[in-house]
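Standup notes
- DV: blocked on the single-chain target, sequence here:
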Amino acid sequence: MTNTTIGDRIKKLREFRDLSQEQLAERADVHVDTIRKLEQNQRQSARINTLRSLARALDVQLERLVGQATVTQELSEPGGGLLELRDAIQDIGILPGVLADDNLEEPPAPGIWMSTVNDATARYWAGEYSSLSSTLPLLLRDGRAVARDHSTEPVWRSLALTYQLAACLATQAGHPDWGYAAVEKQLAAAQKASDPLAEGMGVSTLSWVLLRQGRWEQAQQVAERKADALEPPFRRPSADQLAVYGNLLLAAATPAARRDAWDDALELLTAAEDAAVRSGPVRAYGSAFSVVDVRTQKVNVALAGNENRPGKALEFAGDVVLADISRPVHSAAYRVDVAQAQYQTGDSESALATLLEVEEDQPEWIRLQALAAATVREMLETESRRNTPLRSLAARLGVEPVL
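- DV (later): unblocked, structure below
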């Protein structure tokens, strides 16, 4: 097994971006011979400032030259992209004791800005990450300016939702630490909105970020505690109350299953399904909640833990009506779970067909999914004969074929 060099990583990222060496050199203000020698492994490294310039031109952190591409295949215009999103989340200008820039631009009207937040939420759940990463940094900065000049509860509620989007996008892109910082600001904005349900969705987002960080026990605890605090009244609860409560139960169930607390996970899912039956389909606080959302999570939970249950996952999948899933990204995530269960029960042909369908629907999203890559890698290792569609999918997902 050969070691991957800096030049190998630069080449992979450059080709992922569909840039020539000359185009990358121009964007980074680096001599093209430097890039050629790095990619041909004639040079094993370069000056730190050169590497920083290349990383920024490729819209990745310097550390990301180790391999993982950014979430957006298309490079953003100035003012957008993942590094700009990081800077918008970790805004040094709002830190105590820091002298902020006094040259502040006039913010957009609150109504116009809040409408844009709603559009961004729809783009996130549609999997349109490239366009979202281009606009979300400015949306955050505008939101802080709107809240500064119009400190109303609806504005703070929308700002909380904007930070929720930032947390989700950053974490999907492999930056859960940025996601954590965004959740902190989401919860602060929710408090200023005087909206306990907005706080509840913030804790649900926090639980997911903690899950992605591998902090399973904390992920379960924070979601369960908040669910207990927000448990709706038995008589005449609102649909939003039930939806936020149910989302918190779902957030707690997954880390419980990862910790092999199967009984706890099923108890949480049962309570969530009861809430979904009472609420009916709900869209609130940047998310959705319904019976089908709970049933897809049952499939996911059955595959979690040291002793996963692929047969049980497929049994749960039999209760899911795919057309009832309202969010395209959620539909894709569910089908990746189904593909893993199909493969583990010996049906590699169906697993590949399912993954190819997901890729057709969500080509950008699937590249970020560890489970999809892991399933393809396992299928490559066990293929009985050369499978061209499988190997083509593996190449597109960045999975090296077994030689």
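- Follow-up: The chain has a mean pLDDT of 88.
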